[in-house]
């Protein structure tokens, strides 16, 4: 069962599958996923889960899971140790829109991003990336500290 607001055309943004929100909550609250990659299903006119990564997976595993030439949304649970030696975790929302992607998916993901992002309550930081250097692990470290 999915819930949707408004029409499904590109200008109004896509609906959000309930499973997508529930999978995010599993990452946030239960720590059963290190990351979740979402894609827009144009047939269903909603954002759906494409892939999840287990807690032991690395940031390299995550970035390798993103397509080189198509857009995606993703959340990554970043664990780090503060200067005071405290273990912390921050959730990053990443809007992946590679420069080599076709115009239509770029437009679709751009117009649907805010609506989808609002459904993911508890995200700490947001990154818009058009190539891998814009979402380097060092950037996450800087933002989290």
UniProtKB/TrEMBL annotation:
Record has ATP-binding as a keyword: no
Organism superkingdom: Eukaryota
Pfam families: Cofilin_ADF
Keyword presence, Iron: no
Keywords carried by this UniProt record: Actin-binding
Residues of the ADF-H domain: 13-145
Family: Belongs to the actin-binding proteins ADF family.
The protein's name in its UniProt record: ADF-H domain-containing protein
Taxon lineage: Eukaryota, Viridiplantae, Streptophyta, Embryophyta, Tracheophyta
């Amino acid at each position: 069962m999915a819930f949707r607001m408004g029409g499904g055309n590109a200008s109004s943004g896509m609906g959000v599958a309930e499973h997508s929100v529930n999978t995010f909550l599993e990452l946030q609250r239960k720590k059963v996923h290190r990351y979740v990659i979402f894609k827009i299903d144009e047939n269903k006119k909603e954002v759906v889960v494409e892939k999840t990564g287990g807690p032991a997976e690395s940031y390299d595993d995550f970035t390798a899971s993103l397509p080189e030439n198509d857009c995606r949304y993703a959340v990554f649970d970043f664990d780090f140790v503060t200067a005071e030696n405290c273990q912390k975790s921050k959730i990053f929302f990443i809007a992946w829109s590679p420069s080599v992607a076709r115009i239509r998916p770029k437009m679709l993901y751009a117009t649907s991003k805010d609506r989808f992002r609002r459904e993911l309550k508890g995200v700490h930081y947001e990154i818009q990336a058009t190539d891998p250097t814009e979402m380097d692990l060092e950037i996450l470290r800087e933002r989290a500290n």
